[in-house]
Design goal:
Number of domains: 2
CATH architecture of the largest domain: 3-Layer(aba) Sandwich
Radius of gyration: 20 Å
Number of strands: 11
Number of helices: 6
CATH class of the largest domain: Alpha Beta
CATH topology of the largest domain: Alpha/beta knot
CATH superfamily of the largest domain: SPOUT methyltransferase, trefoil knot domain
Strand content: 25-35%
Shape: elongated
Order of helices and strands: EEHEEEEHEHEHEEHEH
Distance between the termini: 24 Å
Largest sheet: 6 strands, parallel
């Protein structure tokens, strides 16, 4: 049976035999929702590589105390894949973030493309970003990741251009491209996934000038919410992470 995973602020300096207290929403979920009881095993992670195998020592309404049995530190996964995701409509943004997190991306960058149907402004922008971050956090726990992905603030096209120019490899998914995904994957790459309405010519031109390569996945045209995970999966299959 897979152990339940809970996120804590830090496991830095925690060793076997230590006692760790989990409070707030994580503790409530463990005790009230999952009904963890004294003596049950549980995993803690801080999302930056540390994982502790623990045993529940005591529970409260919004408090969980665990005894640490062992601690491991996992290296940051390589390659590091950053996905620039154009804002999809409805709840497809959360779907995209969930899938990208489960497949192992290091960072998701929401992008306000010129043809994006969804628009993030004011309070809606703050709420939408919070939803994306919460989705990534829960998906990372479900996937038992030691390193949780970052979800960046909303990026403009200029921000994306700068990100692409700084990447060892920059790829832009486009149905009109001739080139396929590369066989060689460096230690870090940035992948751009456009909106439902497609990439605007001026966006493609700016990305090309920044050094990005337009690539296609095949004859089929995928939705923006699933194209990223399909491309990342194909790229990771070329690396040691999936072998």
């Amino acid at each position: 049976m897979s152990l339940h995973v809970h996120l804590v602020p830090s496991l830095e300096g925690v060793d076997a035999g230590s006692t760790v207290t989990v409070e707030g929403a994580e503790a409530h979920h463990a005790v009230v929702v999952r009904r963890l009881a004294v003596g049950e095993p549980v995993l803690l992670t801080d999302g930056v590589g540390h994982v502790a195998t623990c045993e529940v020592a005591a529970t409260g309404k919004a408090r969980l105390e665990v005894l640490v049995r062992s601690v491991s530190t996992e290296p940051r996964p390589s390659p590091e894949i950053v996905v620039v995701q154009a804002l999809p409509k409805g709840d497809r943004g959360e779907l995209s973030v969930e899938l990208l997190t489960e497949v192992g991306v290091a960072r998701v960058v929401p992008w306000a493309a010129s043809r994006s149907v969804a628009v993030w402004r004011g309070d809606r922008a703050a709420r939408s970003l919070a939803k994306w971050r919460a989705t990534a956090r829960e998906a990372a726990k479900q996937a038992r990741r030691a390193w949780f992905p970052d979800v960046s603030p909303l990026a403009s096209t200029a921000d994306v251009v700068a990100l692409l120019a700084d990447a060892p490899l920059a790829l832009v998914l486009h149905e009109g491209a001739v080139e396929a995904l590369p066989d060689e994957v460096p230690g870090r790459l940035v992948l751009v996934v456009g909106p439902e309405g497609g990439l605007a010519p001026e966006e493609l031109a700016a990305f090309d000038e920044a050094g990005a390569r337009a690539v296609r996945l095949g004859a089929e045209v995928l939705r923006t919410s699933t194209a990223g995970v399909a491309a990342v999966s194909a790229l990771l299959s070329r690396t040691s992470r999936w072998r």
